[in-house]
Design brief:
Jelly Rolls; 2 domains; four-stranded antiparallel beta sheet; 10 helices
Length: 291
C-alpha cells in the first residue's frame, strides 16, 4: 500500500477485480486544486461533504452534499474547494465502452451517451455511487459489479441523451493542422518542438495554430502535451517503473515536475498511484510524495 503523510487531505485510489477497467477515488481535499484537464472516459462522483467548485463548458458550477457530479469524456474541467472546509467525495471513472455497453443493453440508439448537466440532484444515483464504493472497499465482487451496472443504468435512463454521429451538437471537426500537431506532440514527449517549429511542421503560422488548437482541443499545445505525458506516465507506472524513471521517459524535468502535474490531474501523486497498481489500492495524504 502506498502512503504519503500530511495533514488535512486524504485520497484513496483503487480498483476492484470485478470491475477492472473502472478506477475509484475516495478523497477529501481542502487546498488541493485540480488543473484543467480531461478524461478519456466518464467521471461520476457523489459529494459526501462540503462543496466542490469547478469550471465547465457551461461556466462555473458548484456541487454540495448529496449532489452527483458528471463530466463527459474529453470535456475540459478543473476542481477546487467551494467552501473553507473543502469537500469530500467518491468518484468512479468508467471508460466509454463500459458505459456504451450498458446503454446498448438499455436500447439506446447507436452513439456515445452524453450527459448535458454537470451537477445532478438524484438521491438514488448518489446512494448507488456510494454502494459501488462500499462494495469495492469490502472486496465484494458480486455487489461491486452489480452496483456499477445499476448505477450506470440509473444515470443513463434518467440523465443522458444519445449523441449520433450526425448530431449537430458534436464539437466541430478537427482542422488538419491541429490533428497533425497533436500527432507530433504524441510522438515527441521528450524534447518537443517549439510553437514556431510545430507550426512550420504542419504548414501553419504560430498564432493561428495556437488559436485553432485551443478552440478545438480545449487546451493550448503545451498544456495538452502535459496531459499526454500524464497518461503515458500512468501506463509506465502500471508496469511498475519508479516515478523518477517515468519522469525521464515522459519528458518531465524531474520527479517533482511529474508529481506536480500528476497530482493536479489525478488527485494522487505518482508514487502512491504506483503502489495501487502493485497492491490494489492507493492511500495518499497531503501533497508530499514518497520517494
Amino acid at each position: 500500500m502506498g502512503a504519503v503523510s500530511g495533514a488535512g487531505e486524504a485520497a484513496h485510489f483503487f480498483r476492484h477485480p470485478a470491475i477492472p477497467d473502472v478506477d475509484l477515488l475516495r478523497a477529501r481535499y481542502v487546498t488541493h486544486r485540480f488543473a484543467r484537464h480531461t478524461h478519456d472516459g466518464y467521471v461520476f462522483g457523489v459529494i459526501d461533504a462540503g462543496v466542490e467548485e469547478f469550471e465547465h463548458p457551461g461556466g462555473v458550477v458548484r456541487a454540495g452534499p448529496g449532489s452527483v457530479v458528471v463530466v463527459n469524456p474529453g470535456v475540459i474541467h478543473d476542481g477546487r474547494a467551494g467552501a473553507p472546509e473543502g469537500w469530500a467525495y467518491r468518484v468512479i471513472y468508467p471508460p466509454v465502452d463500459v458505459v456504451a455497453a450498458v446503454a446498448a443493453e438499455l436500447g439506446a440508439r447507436p452513439g456515445t451517451p452524453a450527459f448535458p448537466d454537470a451537477v445532478l440532484d438524484d438521491p438514488t444515483a448518489a446512494a448507488l455511487l456510494r454502494a459501488v464504493h462500499r462494495a469495492g472497499e469490502k472486496g465484494d465482487a458480486l455487489a461491486a459489479s452489480t452496483f456499477l451496472r445499476t448505477t450506470l443504468a440509473r444515470l443513463l435512463t434518467g440523465h443522458s441523451r444519445d449523441v449520433r454521429r450526425d448530431d449537430p451538437r458534436r464539437p466541430p471537426s478537427m482542422p488538419r493542422a491541429v490533428r497533425e500537431a497533436r500527432e507530433i506532440l504524441h510522438a515527441n514527449l521528450v524534447g518537443p518542438p517549439s510553437l514556431d517549429e510545430l507550426a512550420e511542421a504542419v504548414g501553419a503560422r504560430p498564432f493561428p495554430l495556437l488559436r485553432a488548437f485551443r478552440e478545438t482541443v480545449g487546451l493550448p499545445p503545451h498544456a495538452y502535451l502535459n496531459q499526454v505525458r500524464v497518461r503515458a506516465a500512468r501506463d509506465l507506472l502500471d508496469e511498475g517503473l519508479r516515478p523518477a524513471e517515468v519522469a525521464s521517459r515522459t519528458g518531465f524535468a524531474d520527479q517533482a515536475h511529474l508529481s506536480r502535474h500528476f497530482k493536479r490531474t489525478l488527485g494522487v501523486p505518482p508514487g502512491a498511484y504506483r503502489s495501487a497498481r502493485r497492491n490494489g489500492r492507493v492511500v495518499a495524504r497531503g501533497a508530499e510524495e514518497e520517494s
